[in-house]
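Input (structure):
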């Protein structure tokens, strides 16, 4: 027997429950034990019973003498004697002893709990005695978890009461007497006055020890993992499976799915009704310790949160560089309160989405949007050139009230074009009018006059003047048709809210409808870190990689040095097209200005055609009728052709907008989740991260040398043992303490701002799918093969008209 002794008298019983002398019993994990009978005379009794005063010896136990029961006056069976003598004693190095002193009861409980864990049983706190002078406890007991017996609960008739389901939970209690008794010591602390070592039950096998509740506990690193993966919308069950893979098996994790779920439960409990207060406190700390961090909120008359807005230093720097065109589109179902999430989105110098700020509002009312846009304006001071939104009537009214007349409000062209089919109807949609309308509205080469003529021609040809919606869209043409935005710089960067919707999908993948606000803000920060990581990676590639100069022109070489990779590749494509697809068929001189008529022979019909380029050689300026540079900030192929044919060798500096250059935005030192480092101190999260990094570094360096790696492991194990000895009786950080550490704020006892309840917005429920979208979905599914006619159609064999009889 390796792990513990066994004093149990092993026996076999016949049908009557009596022991068969000479029988052998196999007990799991031990040598077979044979029962031998030895009485005073050395002979066995024929009837298998013992006389009063006789003695028998059972393997592994002291000789037992049968005593007469005075109350009953009858002899007892062997099985009764054996049953009273079954005991198990743990074999561990460190165990309690009478007279042992502890500084506190919790220290004593922790010591006995560790002793139980190593032995293979569990403990619990039991009886307490209060001192007579009322100063507190004077005596306390710590018992085996199997102490006592299960109390029978009042049953019920499941046939009569089908609404109730009784859980089938077997009892763990078997009247075990193992325990320790402690009393308050005169020397201070607690003293062990009694220690019962023997148990009346078997211990848990070593291979099953990880199922014990005392052995199931999340470590700090595992809690950190649960918190981190929640930032990417991964739940506790999937996180537990990830732990299993990382530790090499379920038995090595040291916890179960229950502990992972309980961690989430504890997080919810700590947040409680103080969710909004936790968010406000966290953002207040960021505003205090992080440079140029801004946030604001407002509440209604009942003290309920109505709106929240925030932006950090790097968001502001991005806005100053790329805030010429801003789009925002509300997204729903991102938090448990159904507040509407509104991110403000732009386009960075790599043609990627960049987030300038974010807001949460309870309603899409005019008042809410006015407050949100006012916060945005006050935070940045600088107004955007174009503000891209959908056709929400509240936003339409608010923008002129908040911003000056220089800000153009542009509607999303995609949302409008998607309504064409519904407004036209099935019959008109099949006449070709859809293609005509799409070709007209998306043509960026049209002037306002040509667009108006083309629109009226379509209305007259197909009789669409009777449809009020088309009349309304024509009256609002200056808010969505590209021809009316040609005079606004960078207006061509964003014609639809697809950028905003792309961002909404990105944020939506990291959120869900069960998420508290403090969790939502944390996940938003994770998303921002991901976005900025991509931005930094693109900056790095632009600075430290050199694309090929395909044309070998000095102009392309200059562009390669100043533009980011993504923008340079666009410029490079235009330079190649200016060489291969463009030629001048007419040239006119008007004083110091030369007008070129350029033929573009590109295979793409949208680009092919005739263009006019005005060139002033003294100032090296060009202006093309396609207005590509004015609307995107990138020279078109027609201007590049004229510059090249006019002998301009280098790329003109005044055609290099700063927003497309490599180092337009200096990067901040601290990210969203770097509050600890910004404070200038060593917080626990930073220390743990550094320790983890040091161990990982050592393992990486020693992985090729098995002997050194083994020595490093032994050193770590000895250090672990030393830590265990130094922390006997000390409890690790609880879930509550950990959660308050990682979220940066503690549980609030008093609620200042209440959480929203009963929020109802147009996107708070499941989205309704239109007929067109249903048709697209069904088309992707494909048809089924009919068992009757054998064709791939929309009916089956039961409804088939061609079914052979």
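Output (sequence):
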């Amino acid at each position: 027997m390796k792990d513990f002794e066994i004093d149990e008298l092993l026996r076999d019983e016949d049908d009557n429950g009596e022991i068969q002398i000479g029988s052998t019993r196999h007990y799991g994990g031990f040598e077979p034990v044979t029962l031998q009978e030895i009485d005073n005379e050395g002979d066995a009794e024929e009837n298998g019973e013992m006389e009063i005063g006789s003695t028998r010896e059972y393997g592994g136990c002291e000789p037992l003498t049968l005593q007469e029961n005075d109350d009953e006056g009858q002899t007892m069976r062997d099985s009764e004697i054996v049953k009273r003598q079954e005991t198990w004693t743990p074999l561990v190095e460190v165990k309690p002893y009478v007279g042992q002193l502890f500084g506190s009861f919790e220290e004593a409980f922790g010591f006995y709990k560790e002793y139980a864990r190593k032995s293979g049983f569990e403990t619990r706190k039991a009886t307490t005695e209060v001192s007579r002078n009322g100063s507190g406890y004077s005596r306390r007991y710590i018992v085996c978890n199997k102490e006592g017996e299960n109390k029978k609960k009042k049953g019920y008739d499941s046939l009569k009461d089908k609404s109730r389901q009784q859980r089938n939970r077997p009892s763990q209690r078997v009247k075990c007497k193992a325990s320790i008794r402690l009393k308050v010591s005169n020397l201070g602390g607690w003293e062990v006055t009694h220690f019962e070592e023997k148990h009346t039950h078997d211990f848990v096998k070593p291979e099953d020890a990880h199922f014990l509740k005392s052995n199931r506990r999340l470590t700090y690193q595992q809690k950190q993992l649960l918190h981190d993966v929640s930032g990417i919308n991964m739940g506790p069950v999937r996180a537990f499976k990830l732990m299993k893979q990382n530790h090499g098996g379920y038995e090595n994790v040291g916890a179960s799915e229950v502990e992972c779920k309980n961690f989430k439960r504890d997080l919810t409990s700590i947040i409680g009704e103080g969710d909004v207060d936790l968010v406000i406190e966290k953002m207040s700390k960021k505003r205090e310790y992080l440079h140029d961090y801004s946030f604001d909120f407002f509440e209604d008359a009942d003290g309920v949160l109505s709106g929240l807005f925030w932006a950090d230093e790097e968001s502001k720097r991005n806005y100053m560089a790329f805030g010429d065109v801003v789009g925002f589109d509300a997204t729903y179902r991102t938090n448990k309160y159904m507040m509407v999430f509104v991110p403000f989105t732009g386009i960075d110098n790599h043609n990627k989405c960049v987030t300038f700020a974010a807001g949460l509002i309870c309603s899409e009312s005019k008042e809410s949007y006015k407050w949100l846009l006012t916060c945005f304006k006050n935070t940045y001071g600088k107004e955007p050139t174009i503000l891209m939104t959908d056709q929400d009537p509240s936003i339409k009214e608010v923008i002129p009230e908040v911003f000056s007349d220089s800000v153009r409000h542009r509607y999303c062209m995609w949302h409008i074009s998607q309504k064409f089919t519904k407004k036209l109807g099935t019959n008109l949609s099949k006449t070709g009018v859809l293609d005509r309308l799409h070709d007209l509205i998306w043509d960026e080469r049209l002037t306002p006059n040509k667009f108006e003529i083309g629109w009226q021609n379509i209305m007259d040809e197909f009789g669409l003047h009777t449809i009020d919606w088309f009349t309304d869209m024509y009256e609002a043409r200056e808010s969505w048709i590209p021809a009316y935005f040609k005079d606004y710089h960078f207006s061509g960067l964003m014609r639809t809210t697809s950028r905003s919707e792309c961002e909404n999908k990105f944020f939506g993948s990291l959120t869900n409808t069960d998420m508290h606000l403090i969790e939502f803000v944390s996940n938003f920060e994770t998303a921002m870190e991901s976005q900025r990581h991509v931005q930094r990676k693109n900056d790095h590639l632009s600075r430290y990689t050199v694309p090929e100069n395909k044309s070998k022109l000095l102009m392309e070489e200059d562009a390669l040095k100043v533009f980011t990779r993504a923008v340079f590749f666009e410029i490079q494509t235009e330079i190649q097209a200016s060489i291969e697809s463009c030629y001048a068929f007419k040239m006119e001189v008007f004083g110091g200005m030369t007008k070129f008529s350029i033929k573009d022979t590109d295979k793409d019909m949208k680009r092919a055609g005739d263009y006019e380029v005005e060139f002033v050689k003294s100032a090296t300026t060009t202006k093309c009728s396609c207005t590509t540079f004015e609307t995107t900030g990138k020279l078109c192929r027609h201007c590049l052709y004229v510059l090249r044919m006019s002998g301009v060798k280098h790329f003109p500096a005044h055609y290099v907008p700063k927003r497309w250059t490599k180092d337009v935005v200096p990067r901040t030192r601290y990210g969203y989740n770097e509050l600890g480092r910004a404070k200038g101190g060593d917080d626990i999260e930073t220390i743990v991260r550094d320790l983890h990094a040091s161990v990982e570094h050592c393992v990486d360096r020693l992985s090729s040398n098995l002997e050194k790696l083994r020595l490093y492991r032994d050193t770590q194990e000895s250090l672990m043992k030393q830590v265990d000895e130094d922390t006997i009786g000390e409890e690790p950080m609880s879930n509550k303490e950990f959660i308050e550490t990682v979220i940066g704020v503690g549980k609030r006892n008093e609620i200042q701002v209440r959480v929203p309840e009963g929020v109802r917005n147009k996107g708070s429920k499941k989205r309704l799918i239109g007929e067109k979208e249903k048709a697209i979905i069904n088309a992707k599914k494909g048809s089924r093969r009919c068992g009757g006619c054998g064709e791939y159609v929309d009916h089956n064999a039961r409804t088939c008209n061609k079914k052979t009889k």
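Notes: The radius of gyration is 40 Å. The first strand starts at residue 4 and ends at 6.
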